[in-house]
Design a protein that fits this description.
The protein is mostly beta strands and 410 residues long. It has one domain: TolB, C-terminal domain (Neuraminidase), CATH 2.120.10.30. It is built from 3 helices and 24 strands. A 4-stranded antiparallel β-sheet has the order 1-24-23-22, with no helix packed on it. It has a 4-stranded antiparallel β-sheet with strand order 2-3-4-5, with no helix packed on it. Strands 6-7-8-9 form a 4-stranded antiparallel β-sheet, with no helix packed on it. It is globular, with a radius of gyration of 24 Å.
Length: 410
């Protein structure tokens, strides 16, 4: 018996010396979901588990290319969207209801006013803008905004022709409204994106309040949807609910909370969408025709009060899972794929303006899976509202404080 006791003591001593562990101690193994290789260091708001490995808190990556960061304009007021014009200049929306045209160096060149009235309370106002694929010849512009109404407001899309002297928009026409009218100053969605066939994707929010939220699952309602329309605002050919008397024919996908990021993948041609979660659960989705993206039935977030949402489930048959999600949130707004070869390691990466996260998020993608995440310009303390991949290989971003940043290779 003494020999056995001595053997146990020897084994215990060996464990302590060579492993630094006490017997029965819990040894934590590193993993992709909860370790210091992730850029996220704060604890999540929920106990929810991801549906698959790599769906959240993926490994941290870092750009090796030396970067030059500069502010090339800081005189804007409440900018919301930025697009690049064919000649390299920038067109920027300001929430109070007018456009600015900036030179590629950031200098102010034009202000365009005379647009339809906007309700610019809180999250409303003049929001996104998209140039017609044939803008070089037809000079047509499309924009989204919160349209006031006696009973509230709604997300609307208008179009007009930029005059030759760039002082005004001509023949303005409202082509689409995401009905019903709803009394809320929140969650207008409003991103615009043309597809390869010249049809326009429009994101519409569910207006935040619980009575609007449930309409994200109602195909007769325009709240909480992704639409696909023609340049005249009609349902685009091939839309999944054309001919369904119980659905708006303009709807392309549904179950959306508040999507403020849309872009087309430069290789696959698929529509990628970023949407706000509640307290936790910001999502990256690949939008497919006719699919239900789950809100508010499934979510990786909580009410702002901390209470569960609905049945407190994250998965359900017939509802799509996000490609990636954040908890805590970063509040993703405008997005842009990087299609240039100037910074090769950024090629086909997705860049995201983060508001509460106060950074530009870079996601590395491999076969529609997120494989790495980086947080750029964290030290600036800015709410990044929108980003655009410039034709010169630089990344441009606007902030809520009214700045235009340029990030380029040194």
């Amino acid at each position: 018996m003494t020999k056995i006791n001595n053997l146990i003591i020897l084994i215990t001593f060996t464990l302590i010396v060579f492993t630094g562990c006490q017997p029965n101690a819990q040894v934590t193994q590193p993993n992709e979901e909860n370790n210091q290789t992730s850029v996220e260091t704060e604890d999540p708001n929920t106990k929810y588990k991801p549906a698959f490995e790599g769906q959240t808190r993926i490994k941290k990556v870092k750009t090796s290319t030396p970067l030059d960061v500069s502010v090339i304009n800081e005189g804007m007021k409440r900018p919301w969207a930025i697009v690049q014009m064919p000649d390299g200049r920038f067109l920027i929306t300001e929430k109070s209801g007018f456009f600015r045209i900036l030179g590629q160096d950031g200098s102010l060149q034009k202000e365009i006013k005379g647009l339809p009235e906007v309700d610019d309370d809180d999250q409303g106002g003049l929001l996104d803008v998209a140039l017609d694929p044939d803008f070089s010849t037809n000079r047509m512009m499309y924009w989204s905004y919160s349209q006031p109404n006696d009973k509230g407001n709604l997300t609307a899309v208008a179009k007009g022709k930029l005059s030759e002297d760039e002082s005004k928009l001509e023949n303005i026409k409202v082509i689409f409204r995401a009905t019903p009218v709803f009394k809320s100053s929140l969650h207008f969605g409003s991103r615009l994106q043309f597809d390869k066939d010249g049809y326009l994707f429009v994101s519409g929010g569910e207006r935040s309040h619980k009575e609007g939220r449930v309409q994200a699952q109602d195909l007769k309602s325009g709240l909480g949807k992704i639409f696909r329309i023609t340049k005249d605002g009609k349902a685009a050919p091939g839309n999944p609910f054309i001919g369904n008397s119980n659905a708006m024919p303009e709807i392309y996908a549904y179950g959306i909370r508040n999507a403020q990021g849309l872009d087309i993948h430069p290789i696959t041609g698929e529509l990628w969408e970023l949407e706000y979660g509640p307290k936790g659960g910001d999502e990256v989705n690949i939008i497919k025709a006719g699919k239900d993206y789950g809100w508010p039935t499934i979510t990786y977030g909580l009410e702002y009060s901390g209470d569960p949402i609905g049945s407190s489930i994250t998965q359900k048959d017939g509802m799509e899972q996000p490609v990636y999600y954040w908890d805590p949130v970063i509040s993703p707004s405008g997005i842009s794929f990087y299609a240039s070869d100037i910074i090769p390691e950024w090629r086909n990466n997705l860049f995201i303006g983060a508001l509460s996260g106060t950074h530009i998020c870079r996601l590395v993608i491999d076969q529609n899976k997120i494989t790495g995440e980086e947080r750029l310009l964290e030290d600036k303390g800015e709410r990044f509202r929108d980003v655009v991949d410039g034709s010169d290989g630089a990344l441009y971003a606007i902030t809520d404080s009214g700045k235009l940043y340029r990030v380029k290779k040194k």
